[in-house]
Design goal:
Order of helices and strands of chain A: HHHHHEEEEEEEEEEEH
Strand content of chain B: under 5%
Radius of gyration of chain A: 20 Å
Number of helices of chain B: 7
Structural class of chain B: mainly alpha
Shape of chain B: globular
Oligomer: heterodimer
Structural class of chain A: alpha+beta
Distance between the termini of chain B: 36 Å
Radius of gyration of chain B: 17 Å
Low-confidence stretches of chain A: 201-213
Order of helices and strands of chain B: HHHHHHH
Amino acid sequence: MTTIRHHLSEQLLTAYAAGELPEAFNLVVATHVSLCDDCRARLGSLDAVGGALLEQGDAMPMSEDSLAACLDRIDGLSQATARSPMRRHGIFPAPLADYVGGGVSKVKWRNLGMGVKQAILPTAKDASARLLYIPGGQAVPDHGHRGLELTLVLQGAFRDETDRFGPGDIEIADEEMQHTPVAEHGEVCICLAATDAPLKFNAIIPRLAQPFLRI
Amino acid sequence: MQADEIETDWAALVLRVRDHQDRAAFAALFRHFAPRVKAFLMKSGADATLAEECAQDVMATLWQKAALFDPSRASVATWVFTIARNRRIDALRKARRPEPEDLPWGPEPEPDQAEALEVQQDTERLGVALAQLPEKQRALIERAFYGDLSHSEIAAETGLPLGTIKSRIRLALERLRQQMS
């Protein structure tokens, strides 16, 4: 595993543990956790908070026949013996590969111009997730944010005004942030990004294109 | 703390369900956890009928997935919470929640007793810390986990001492990565 320097925030991990994130954010969190043992361990500790709350929480009496009804149901079930694990495909950890239906070769890219490509992933509408393909040296158009945006690097690296982001690193950008991510020279930079608001592009051409591109 | 001082060894009951399809063990788990899952779901906005039905689903899932439970990784309460949370997302939010990639660390046939006990003790310490939090802070954590806060309203820190649990999972992951390489 490469060294991951930029991690999920406590707030995002808690919201994921609680089950309160939009699907698109869930996908980014699950993909990062698949790559990052630190965040997996932090997530485990937050699940334990859920367990402690359940243990200490109130109890609502179940109806009298509920145990018998449950046992009846169980008779019709066989115990799960093997997992049917989702599989990793190249640079795509299992949860992402599941959305794409495989690895990078399965992505249906659309050109955004200047060699930059994107593919929108099918998620619930409260937030959107997409894959970005940015050739080395190429800038992602400068944009401001109206919501929360997560960008997870899967291959290559990008830099912006704040830092360098390599494989497994996640950048969490909020409304105040104006940044210009530029892909490092060399390997094509592939990222998984999610946002709960449409991106607002500052460059003229991408802004005109925005309604057609669904970004 | 000695093992016999622990109130009920829920993990041992799950292992009896796993190994012997032990209905008495399951009944004990059901009596303890089903009413708590029901209350959890009602606080999350389910009505009594739906909550009761989902609590049964959760317990049936516990039976079905007993073979996947590993007491050296999480307490039974934590495991039940994750099943109940996922059931809540299906039933109430109808949203998808992709899970992180599974790691190839199926439960050992003979789980390490010492590790399982440590997990149990970590969980109890966490419970004590939770009970001792100032009321306001505790209420915020409850609301977050009951699905009563949006993700942007969730506090950045729980204020709970999670370091030990985190380090234990981290160590287990390191061991696993070594075995894999």
